[in-house]
Design a protein that fits this description.
alpha/beta, about 220 residues, 11 helices, single chain, globular
């Protein structure tokens, strides 16, 4: 789905003047039609996951929104789950098994959610590199403020279409309640994964209690 500059401004909580500057400098993916900037939704999501928002705009949403987003990853994971025994030889089997375990808790149809997530994967793989991925449902909105994150430690790494060619061993599966929260959580998870110390801890496959404590402390000390 293509977006106008005003829509991107609202989603990223970034002034249109700043977006115009970024687009002109090539800092954000965009194209022009009749001298008006347009933005591809999947490219914007990928840009957010690759840390470009954090690199380009120190204020980001976390400081602009105050406490509302301070612990949004902690809350989403608390409502979600941590799995360390998910089996599958490819991403579809992994996501299907995860949703078979998670969807009943959310009173959702696992096959429908799996299909929606796979449609997004077919548009553009959500692997970040270094063995991590963030599969998410592009058009799926949970009712109310019920963002859900499931951390999935795979029993065996799988090929995922990562740019660095590395197989994926850990997934953060995301279902968010609206577009702004969705992009904020994508950026937050990508920021977590970019931290070498966090990757080292994640490699030990902590259980839910341990991971929640880790993320709560990490979010409390964020400066963005």
């Amino acid at each position: 789905m293509d977006l106008e500059i005003q829509e991107v401004s609202e989603l990223l909580n970034v002034p249109m003047e700043t977006l115009l500057q970024w687009a002109g400098e090539g800092k954000i993916p965009s194209y022009t039609i009749q001298e008006r900037y347009r933005f591809n939704r999947e490219e914007i999501e990928d840009w957010v996951m690759q840390q470009k928002l954090l690199e380009s705009f120190d204020g980001m949403q976390h400081s602009k929104k105050g406490g509302q987003l301070t612990f949004n990853l902690f809350r989403a994971l608390h409502k979600g789950e941590v799995f360390s025994d998910i089996h599958g030889s490819n991403k579809q089997l992994i996501i299907k098994e995860t949703m078979n375990r998670l969807a009943p808790k959310l009173k959702l149809d696992p096959d429908v959610i799996t299909e929606i997530i796979m449609e997004r994967e077919e548009l553009m793989p959500t692997a970040l590199g270094a063995g991590f991925g963030i599969p998410h449902a592009r058009d799926f909105l949970l009712k109310g403020q019920n963002d859900i994150v499931a951390c999935v430690f795979l029993t065996e790494p799988i090929e995922y279409g990562a740019l660095d060619g590395m197989p994926v061993h850990t997934l953060f599966l995301l279902l968010a309640s609206d577009d702004k929260r969705h992009l904020s959580l994508l950026a937050k998870i990508a920021h977590l994964i970019a931290n070498p110390e966090m990757r080292k801890v994640l490699s030990r496959k902590p259980n839910k209690t341990e991971l929640l404590e880790l993320i709560q402390n990490w979010e409390a000390n964020l400066k963005v």
